[in-house]
Design brief:
The chain has 242 residues and is an alpha/beta fold. It contains 12 helices and 8 strands. It is globular, with a radius of gyration of 17 Å. The chain starts with a strand and ends with a helix. 39% of the residues are buried. The protein binds uridine-5'-diphosphate (UDP).
Amino acid sequence: MKVTSRELFGFSFYDGDLPELLEVLENKIEKKEKVQVITANPEILARGFEEEELNKALKEAEIVVADGIGVIVASRFLGKAISHRLPGIEIGEALMKKGEEKGWRFYFLGGKEEVTYKAVKGLKTRYPQLRVGGFHHGYFRDDEEVIEDINRVNPHILFVGLGAPRQEYWIRRNRERIKAVVMMGVGGSFDVWSGTKKRAPQWVRKLNLEWAYRVICEPQRLQRVIPAFFNFIKIVWKNKRN
Ligand code: UDP
């Protein structure tokens, strides 16, 4: 199956729309071909240039999508326009919707104990046919125990919400031992699915200001966002000059 992609910063970005991506992932599930999906925002990309392991994760993941208006704007500025911005939470929700129809099994890993539980409960109400194979909070020490539980379920789809880039590292380090086909980092999505945090209203998202909404709701994010923003600008500028 042909995957629409674009080279940017030395990484290969998937550049189809959401229905196309679902088709690609469905195909992988049918063939039982493992896929790591990374939703890359400017912060992850900036760190990907500094941290070797993250750089490898971004190069090796089968699907990297642009998540964040910053990536889209930078791609246009560099003359390699990526057309589709695909937030992880939306890919996750689309997969669950499709999964109801296809009978896919899901495993949910991440978030605080009560958050994971509430998220799964809420998702079962929203997607009544959703097959929840299992779930586990994200504050564990023993990888083995968690991997054993995932493998007991043998899910088609594993959502890992440990925050980026921890989740990307965790998937990369363990992917060969995990019996799951699609493995995707979903960041703070469990907090939203549990109702603990709210996503930006639709009109804010339409204005591409979801990042600003998150900073306003969680000002401590600024500590992460500001240095990442400047690093990202530096990288874009360097790429432009080259
Ligand atoms: N988290 C976790 N285990 C950890 C650290 C974080 O499960 O050891 C969870 C945390 O509870 C939250 C998510 O990871 O649900 C991180 O959310 P954040 O919004 O910071 O992630 P981002 O979307 O920015 O990657």
